[in-house]
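**User:**
Everyone, produce one record:

**Assistant:**
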Amino acid sequence: MSRPEVTGRKLSRAGKTMAEFARSYNVTRRTLEVWIKDGRGPAITQPGGKFGRITITEQSEREWLAKHTKLAAAIAAAE
């Protein structure tokens, strides 16, 4: 199977990785991990079990934004 960057095909994914989510809101991955641990972060899924890649779905991101509008505004202002 050819790599997507060679063939030009896009891979469809169910959401963002933790690193992508953190980058999109201009926070460190560690900050995101603390938010999730404290219950202030978005809901995560881990399809591969304990060692699978952690994913934040688009729906989870929308719900997090709705719940934390003030926090999202502060993050956006910091960009």
Summary: The helical segments are 4-7, 18-24, 29-38, 58-67, 69-78.
